[in-house]
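Entry for the shared binder. Reason: the reviewer on the internal report wants the predicted structure included alongside the sequence.
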Amino acid sequence: MSFDDRLWQYNCSDTVITLECYERIQNNIDAMGLREPADFQQVLFSAVLESMLRGVRIDVARRGEYEMLLLDELSRREAWLTRVLGHPLNPRSGKQMQSLFYGDLRQRVITKRATGNPTLDDSALAQLGEREPLLLPLIRKIQEVRSIGVFLSTFVRMPLDYDGRMRTSFNIAGTETYRFSSSENPFGNGGNLENLPKGGTDDDSDLDLPNIRAMFLPDLGNDFFDIDLSKADLRIVYWEADAKEGKAMLKEGKDPYIELAREYFRDPTINKYREDGTDNPKYKMFKSFAHATHYLGSARGISQRIGLTVHETEKTQKWYFERVPEVQKYQERVKNELTKRRYVENIFGYRWYCFDRIDDNAFRQAAAYIPQSSVACLINRGYYNIFKNLREVQVLLQVHDSLAGQFPSHLGDWAKRRVVEECSIPLPYDDPLTIPVGIATSPVSWGACR
């Protein structure tokens, strides 16, 4: 057989085998009733590719300022550690950290549950701080050094493309919940743009991290926009559970977290200073508690996050389930569906299959999957609607449950209204749900959107 014949045979085999796989996959999709989700995931490709190719303009001068600021903050904290410990410490070195805490300071060893190996990750440091409050100043400085290091390496120093723009590779099939994953592009530039932090001041320290989003600029003549979905996870849980009082609060424009926190704490001033209650520690605690409870969090696990004892958390969960009993019934339904069918399904018809042992961890994954995947499917449909129906607007980034992009400044209010319309998609429950869409804009940067 000649070289040309072998080449033709090789390429034709690739083509024929791929076609045979495609035909069988399509048959399986139809047999499983997954045609609509499968077709949508395919058409999403064009919109996402356009965003990946365009990239985002970066404020290089501000990027340099952030680097110098962070390096100065880093050196101050490293000097503090050297002065207090009597020797330098690299908080990113597992060997040095274990020598300090498990050797010099004789702390009881904390191990990773999955591997059984000693660890001093953020969770372990938090446990050490609770166990030994005298170590808190040292632990906080170590956490600050780590945070600054992440900001520098992961965000500020992320390499740009030849034209000074930041690009990423979005993976539409990157997660089980249909959120995208994001990584460097094929040329080794860019990186993960899914988790860009807004920065801000840490309540427990003097660390003030910069708003990385302020480096992301609209192209000349454009305004940046950022949309978000109002209490999306909570709405999905309450509609799945058909929690009548909770749904009524949301329909009236009330925040169930505020209303229930007022009742639980018997404190009508939860949102006295800020309407959304975000300045109140009771509100923050109750919201965190309720969110974790919706995801089948145990009292022991939740208590470590919100600062209550296990007994207090158990009492709070008992009160919450008496107050919103439909949520507990919904959770039992999810458990039963997973046990009987080995999958759960969201309102868009997307499924999560469990191929492992059905246990508490699988139940928690299933409970989290439904709201998380529903929100991801919703935001992706808004993404595609803008791409298809609103060509004047360019989506630049998909950030889990929100979209960021730009539109010509002269289109102003018209563009904002149309973006909101394209993302206001009814979820087909018996009682249809349309999650309110908020939009913030700025002619300056993503970080300046208000």
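Summary line for the report: The first helix runs from residue 3 to 31.
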